[in-house]
Design a protein that fits this description.
Radius of gyration: 31 Å
Largest sheet: 5 strands, mixed
CATH superfamily of the largest domain: Glycoside hydrolase 144 (GH144)
Distance between the termini: 114 Å
Keywords: Signal
InterPro entries: DUF3131, Glycoamylase-like_cons_dom, SbsA_Ig
Structural class: alpha+beta
Strand order of the largest sheet: 3-11-9-5-6
CATH topology of the largest domain: Glycosyltransferase
Shape: elongated
Protein name: Glucoamylase family protein
Pfam families: Big_5, DUF3131, Glycoamylase
Number of strands: 25
Helix content: 25-40%
Number of domains: 2
């Protein structure tokens, strides 16, 4: 019994010694009652100055001796020095970094629970605050004239279509990581980019014609399906690369986007052999086959899965050009009823609602991604173009201004959106490819959206161009012009370039400057016939 008593007594003595060796064990705690950065409070801190003022207010006076090792600022694991100022009662601590922070960067401030009050209490818990710094408003490149800037953007972006084209075929790679995979619609944009480059003197007209001949030679031997081309090809072999499991054959919309470029090239280069080849390829497309015995056109047909994709091209989207080219075909034309019942959905394409005080004639709520008002109008001139459903000049301008107005309103409070930083369209994002729009907003801005809209909204697009080049150029300007997308809210900047995003930038700027691609395309008899057959009116037909 005595033995047990001695053991218990020794145990209690050891516990007592252990407690007395921890000077804070019996102490109560104190609290942080206010945390602010540049007078901002809450849980999200974005757009913070590069020399921020950080304010801590505690419910008890802090011990000034141990604050430096218990309040620390980090960036990517690197610790930044801090200066501390104290109020007369030592309850308020004002902190400034010793050096300016980097713009558009993420930092975190740690306040450790080992921070001690003057009266000995310990901080109730560790605090960790993350904040991101603001855009650096200084110019990243020397200022040049607007005309010089437009030329520079066209020239640099053209490099994607010239230097990075597939060496064997001349076709355009889908993206800068695509290897041998080339894209049909993007190659149509590439042909129009080549025309623009030849006209601007980036290459000679002879060089441009030889490259287009190389592309056409490849297309003549590439896999075709009832005359139509697939979405992707192997640039060496001309064999179809499936876009998805059942999308392993004809892609009629990609085919139309390709011919938008080829028909413009036929007029520009005016070479007999090239003209004959382009005309033969166009006339071989069995547009009427793709009705699938219905009214309207279907996007896909597969030699393996036939019509299983079952995607009818109807409603307002990027494919108006398809119906115009199909209607104008001298060999396999569609009827006006295909346009009315298919594309126009018997008037179902109309909208007519007001968004931000702007009437939207056609399309989905708030317009959808901007590419749907751009792709068809790289060749089709919307100025003065009308049918019973819309004035297309009004349509493309209204859609663009609604997109911009939405970004200015910024209902999700994404950092960086403004009257100069706007434009939602399909592009890469921080979590994969997405069709960004006012109804699918992830905080991602795509340069192609505003820049390709320059023919419709010149002042607004030029403002965006200058902001993106001068203020963000160190982050988004690269080897092939503007990179695909960025999010100032997420501090994410793409490394990618996509043909279908780069091409409309060059072409849109050229149409703004000279109307060259519009003029060439609208001269084509097939285009005039197609528009007339579908009851469009235009001063250009």
């Amino acid at each position: 019994m005595r033995h047990i008593f001695l053991i218990v007594t020794l145990f209690l003595i050891l516990i007592g010694c252990s407690k007395s060796s921890d000077p804070t064990a019996d102490r109560s705690t104190f609290s942080l009652t206010r945390f602010a950065i540049d007078e901002k409070e809450g849980n999200i801190f974005k757009g913070i100055a590069i020399k921020p003022k950080i304010t801590l207010i505690f419910d008890k006076a802090v011990d000034k001796k141990n604050i430096e090792q218990n309040v620390e600022l980090f960036y990517n694991g690197t610790k930044y020095g801090l200066d501390f100022n104290f109020s007369s009662d030592n309850k308020t601590v004002t902190i400034f970094p010793k050096v300016n922070l980097s713009p558009l960067s993420s930092y975190h401030l740690v306040i450790r629970s080992t921070l001690i009050a003057q009266s000995g209490e310990r901080l109730d818990s560790e605090k960790d605050y993350t904040f991101t710094t603001a855009i650096d408003s200084t110019d990243k490149f020397p200022r040049i004239s607007t005309e010089e800037l437009l030329t520079k953007v066209q020239r640099q972006t053209f490099s994607y279509f010239w230097d990075f084209a597939h060496p064997a075929s001349g076709m355009i790679r889908e993206r800068n990581t695509s290897g041998d995979v080339v894209t049909t619609g993007g190659s149509g944009f590439g042909v129009m980019a080549i025309i623009s480059a030849a006209e601007r003197g980036f290459i000679t007209k002879s060089q441009g014609m030889e490259r287009v001949k190389k592309i056409v030679s490849f297309l003549k031997s590439a896999d075709r399906y009832h005359g139509a081309f697939s979405h992707w090809y192997n640039g060496n072999t001309g064999k179809t690369v499936p876009f998805s499991q059942k999308d392993d054959g004809a892609d009629l919309v990609e085919t139309a986007l390709l011919f938008q470029g080829l028909l413009a090239a036929r007029n520009y280069f005016n070479d007999i052999a090239l003209s004959e080849d382009i005309t033969a390829l166009y006339n071989a497309v069995e547009w009427s086959f793709f009705r699938n015995n219905q009214k309207g056109l279907f996007w896909h047909w597969s030699p393996t899965y036939a019509w299983d994709m079952n995607l009818k091209v109807k409603g307002w989207n990027e494919a108006l050009i398809l119906y115009v080219l199909a209607a104008g075909s001298p060999t396999f034309p569609i009827d006006k009823e295909d346009y009315e019942e298919g594309w126009a959905n018997n008037g179902g394409i109309q909208n007519g609602s007001l968004y931000y005080g702007i009437t939207l004639p056609l399309g989905p709520e708030r317009g959808g991604p901007l590419f749907i008002s751009q792709y068809s109008f790289l060749g089709l001139n919307p100025h003065g173009l009308k049918d019973k459903y819309a004035d297309y000049e009004l349509q493309v301008r209204s859609h663009t201004l609604i997109n911009r107005a939405y970004c200015i309103a910024n209902p999700h409070n994404f950092y960086g959106y403004s009257a100069q930083c706007w434009g939602l369209t399909a592009s890469d994002s921080y979590d994969g490819y997405s069709a960004h729009s006012p109804t699918n907003d992830r905080g991602v801005i795509s340069p192609t959206a505003a820049l390709s809209s320059m023919p419709y909204t010149p002042e607004e697009s030029l403002d965006a161009l200058e902001f993106m080049y001068y203020k963000l150029g160190d982050r988004i300007w690269g080897e092939y012009g503007f990179k695909d997308a960025f999010s100032l809210d997420k501090l994410w900047f793409a490394d990618s370039y996509l043909a279908i995003d780069q091409g409309p930038i060059i072409i849109g700027i050229e149409n703004y400057r000279s109307g060259l691609l519009w003029s060439l395309f609208m001269q084509c008899p097939e285009v005039k016939n197609g528009l007339t057959k579908l009851d469009f009116t235009s001063p250009n037909i």
